[in-house]
Design goal:
The chain is of the alpha+beta class. The chain has 3 domains: about 60-265 and about 275-515, YVTN repeat-like/Quinoprotein amine dehydrogenase (Methylamine Dehydrogenase, Chain H), CATH 2.130.10; about 525-645, Cupredoxins -  blue copper proteins (Immunoglobulin-like); about 660-755. The chain has 12 helices and 44 strands. It has a 6-stranded mixed sheet. About 45% of the residues are buried. The chain binds sulfanyl-(tricuprio-$l^{4}-sulfanyl)copper and dinuclear copper ion. Dinuclear copper ion (CUA) binds near residues 560, 590, 628, 629 and 636. Dinuclear copper ion (CUA) binds near residues 560 and 636.
């Protein structure tokens, strides 16, 4: 490849001076012309103005949506609805190297079920960590319904750090819901099953199958769930569904609803009606009320036994210690949502057209007076509906979930069958507004809607069906998130956003400025364990070591080379490659892939990532960087040479490409000197402006200075070889010197452009 170096550089200069400015197809047209051409109304324009975010603009809120069956989390902005990230959680995700590097494989391994790797998750409910009921922006939790697991995502780098497996359940839908100081993360079972791993016939359903509710203890400092300190309530086999933690007035308590309290066991093939009939026969199911605070005290006092290594509170103990109560709730209930003051709890039944509002004051009174209408078959006291209910409101057919507005008493409930959102007043018990959406809505989500101070402003309708909303893409349609403006009295539909990754049951939105993610890791960082990696490697310290029967490659990556570039091992050896990204620059991630191996690493600035494998077959295995990181990205390559056992290298001349002469060397040096002049002019521009007032420019200048330092080292090597008359090596090192100059110039030009576009002013030179 012959690159005209001078041309490349002048092109760069040209871009920096704005010669590359593009023109838009509509640039000559008026607003009216565009509206006409695209068939837009005034209302559309208003909606567009509320969501459109110009280039470089930022969103006010960040949404963390469940990725449904993808087992991931989707991050997008509001109001722009632009997707920013997929976070690998229960499922390997190659771009992030998640499930490909050793470090993240160990996170996924925590989620094994009975020793089996589970490489997906049915994610439903994300939840932020809280301090006094406010989102604190530090952690995100999400459940897997199919295999009862909870994952912890650290929001300082948006990476999954921990997966815990429920020690008792065989599914779990009622999580993740956090208590107001993230003391615990609630997770309720869905489909009743024996707590043991044994076979138990369905005939013994009532006596041996169980539901349950786990309170996972969270250590905020460590950022880890603590299985050893967590406890589980044994509950009747009622298909516990969603949960919500009490707050303010109801702090210390948890609420969990259920369906199929009929305890029907199905059996179409046995001539019985299906589950759907048997599980919806009764007019009411049960809301479970649990006292986690008192339960935690019992655990701390050593009064709760461990079963298979985990604290489990049997129903008999929970009843005796007055930890659990039941209240009837509407037919086939789904959502249970506690209001910000903690004084009311709203439950909706999918087969009832009413939302039921419970009064915590009334419930507490009934508990205090031990006023119960009876007991369930397991002896749990039942509070009569009339002693718990505040009001019932006809909100529409198939109400599911409720979100609270910033305005007191105002709520939004998703109406599945009628495909709409009902805005209503739960204090007065009246409907305020209804908005039809497209199409069947599941959850809905308001800004900071689960906190004690919801922001209102926007609502997202998480729709199950898209049907005809988007261009057809085959029988499997994307899901549709619809953005709704709820700042006025009337709701206004603003935008449709297709989500093609899974069914995101629920999402949570946080004020963007509460998140302070890092832009680079401390150097040599094992991001999954959140500590310095034992395999971190500094520049110049790269090495290959044979120890404990393995070949450890301690390598580095930086624009635009991988060190080492040649790795030689013998057939059958186990190889562990550890790569540290030496970059300090923002967004300079390098990847790493090897032919014939299922691996891609994502090595962000500062990170150390490892890949361990057995070199089974002799052969030649090219490897390379998978991120287009610089102009010489394609050259960021190397060879893994797996030699046959006992291979002896042949004596002789190495077959090489070009041979260089003194003239080649001098030509290269001349280019370098000219390039240096360009760099100097850019430096002069930057330093003659108030660049220190612009942190992104300061970072670029730091990076450029570092690259220039590397250029200087190469220059010295080139000159040393030239002095010895070795023009082959002298020319090659002079070429490397130029490579570093180009990187320096690239950084410098980016900094210069930034200053020009952001109103930097000239300053007196010192
Ligand atoms: Cu309603 Cu899993 Cu919360 Cu689906 S859940 S919608
Ligand atoms: Cu590093 Cu491409």
């Amino acid at each position: 490849m012959k690159l005209n170096k001078k041309r490349a550089l002048s092109l760069m200069m040209g871009l920096a001076m704005g010669f590359g400015a593009s023109s838009s197809a509509y640039s000559q047209a008026s607003l009216e012309d565009v509206m006409k051409a695209r068939g837009l109304t005034q209302k559309d324009l208003l909606a567009a103005a509320k969501t459109y975010t110009p280039t470089g603009g930022r969103d006010e809120y960040l949404v963390f949506a469940s990725g449904g069956q993808s087992g991931q989390v989707i991050v997008y902005g509001i109001p722009s609805m632009r997707i920013l990230k997929y976070i690998g959680v229960f499922t390997p995700e190659p771009w992030q190297g998640y499930g490909f590097d050793d470090e993240s494989k160990s996170v996924l391994a925590q989620g094994r079920i009975k020793g089996k790797d589970i490489t997906w998750g049915d994610t439903h409910h994300p939840a932020f960590s809280e301090t006094e009921g406010e989102y604190n922006g530090r952690y995100l939790f999400i459940n897997d319904k199919a295999n009862p697991r909870i994952a912890v995502i650290d929001l300082h780098d948006f990476e999954t750090k921990q997966i815990v497996v429920n020690p008792f359940f065989k599914s779990a839908h009622g999580g993740a819901f956090v208590t107001p100081n993230t003391e615990y993360v609630m997770d309720a079972a869905q489909y009743a099953a024996p707590f043991s791993d044994d076979f138990v016939p369905l005939e013994e359903f009532n006596s041996q199958y169980r539901g349950g509710l786990t309170y996972w203890k969270f250590d905020d400092k460590e950022g880890k769930l603590k299985p050893d300190e967590s406890f589980t309530f044994e509950l009747p086999p009622y298909s516990q569904d969603l949960s919500d933690a009490g707050k303010n007035a109801s702090y210390g308590w948890g609420f969990t609803n259920s369906f199929c309290s009929e305890r029907y066991v199905g059996g179409i093939e046995r001539g019985r009606p299906p589950f759907e009939a048997g599980c919806s026969q009764k007019d009411t199911d049960f809301l479970h009320i649990t006292n986690w605070k008192k339960a935690a005290e019992l655990v701390a006092a050593g009064k709760v036994e461990k079963v298979n290594g985990s604290y489990m509170i049997p129903m008999t103990q929970a009843i005796k210690e007055e930890l659990v109560y039941l209240v009837p709730e509407p037919k086939s209930p789904h959502g249970v949502d506690v209001n910000p003051a903690g004084t009311h709890i709203i439950v909706s039944g999918k087969l009832d057209s009413h939302a039921w509002v419970y009064s915590w004051e009334k419930i507490q009174k009934a508990i205090a007076e031990k006023k119960f209408e009876g007991k369930d078959p397991y002896g749990i006291p039942i509070i009569a509906l009339k002693d718990a209910l505040h009001t019932q409101v006809a909100v529409g057919l198939g109400p599911l979930h409720t979100q609270y507005d910033a305005k007191e008493c105002t709520v939004f409930t998703s109406i599945y069958v009628d495909s709409m959102v009902t805005k209503w007043d739960y204090c007065e018990g009246k409907v305020l507004d209804q908005l039809h959406i497209h199409y069947n809505i599941g959850h809905l989500m308001a800004m900071e809607g689960d906190s004690v101070t919801p922001d209102g402003k926007y609502l997202v309708s998480l729709n199950k069906l898209a049907i005809d909303r988007f261009n057809p893409v085959g029988p499997l349609h994307p899901q549709n998130h619809q953005l709704i403006d709820i700042s006025g009295d009337k709701m206004q539909l603003l935008y449709d956003m297709p989500l093609p990754l899974g069914e995101p049951h629920y999402a949570v939105a946080i004020k963007a400025d509460k998140l302070k993610p890092v832009i680079r890791y401390k150097s040599g960082w094992d991001s999954r364990a959140d500590k310095r990696s034992a395999y971190r490697t500094r520049a110049g310290r790269e090495k290959v070591v044979r120890e404990d029967g393995m070949v450890h490659v301690y390598g580095t990556v930086i624009r635009s080379h991988i060190t080492p570039e040649i790795i030689e091992v013998e057939e059958g050896e186990t190889v562990s490659i550890h790569l540290t990204n030496l970059e300090r620059a923002q967004d300079e991630t390098h990847g790493f892939a090897i032919y014939g191996q299922s691996v891609n690493l994502s090595i962000e600035p500062g990170k150390t990532a490892s890949y361990t494998f057995t070199a089974e077959k002799a052969g030649v295995y090219p490897y390379y960087c998978t991120e287009f990181c610089s102009a010489l990205h394609l050259e960021m390559q190397g060879y893994l040479l797996v030699k046959p056992k006992g291979y002896q290298a042949k004596e002789g001349v190495m077959e090489e490409g070009e041979q260089y002469t003194k003239a080649d060397y001098e030509k290269q040096v001349k280019t370098n000197i000219e390039t240096q002049a360009v760099i100097d002019s850019v430096v002069a521009f930057i330093t003659s402006h108030n660049f220190k007032d612009f942190p992104p420019v300061v970072a670029l200048v730091e990076d450029a200075t570092e690259q220039l330092g590397f250029a200087d080292e190469s220059k010295k090597k080139a000159e040393a070889f030239a002095a010895k008359g070795d023009y082959q090596n002298a020319t090659l090192w002079a070429g490397q010197w130029w490579q570093y100059q180009v990187k320096t110039a690239d950084m410098g030009l980016r900094a210069k452009t930034y200053l020009e576009q952001n109103g930097a002013v000239k300053v007196e030179s010192k």
